[in-house]
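Hi support team,

I submitted a single chain yesterday and got back a structure, but I'm not sure I'm reading the token output correctly. Could someone confirm the output below corresponds to the sequence I sent? I've pasted both exactly as they appear in my results page.

Thanks,
R.
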Amino acid sequence: MTDRSAKYWSDILTAITEIEGFVEGTVSLNAYVRDVKTKRAVERGLAIVGEAMGMLMKQHPELKVESARAIVGMRNRLIHSYDSVDDKIVWEVVRNYPPALKAVALEHLA
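Hi R., thanks for writing in. Yes, this is the structure output for that exact sequence:
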């Protein structure tokens, strides 16, 4: 198996940047919930982040990224349990966690 770490980190960085753009100007959970296109775009971005993180963890089991398992878990929920996704949780994730993961991705790509 070839090491595709740089590609996965790049995918994470791209998805986070896109998510930030999608929610720019969305000021509340209620506004987010009403904007179905933004919700779907954010969910897809989070799924990409989770899939890429899962691939990184498979290639590099020693990798230590805060909340890596939760990131993969979020992806699994979005993909496999789409009918039980809690918009409030997704909104909180998007509002609070991307900057730290974005910084980690930038470090790995430097």
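A quick pointer for reading it: The chain has one domain: 5-109. Let us know if anything else looks off.

Best,
Support desk
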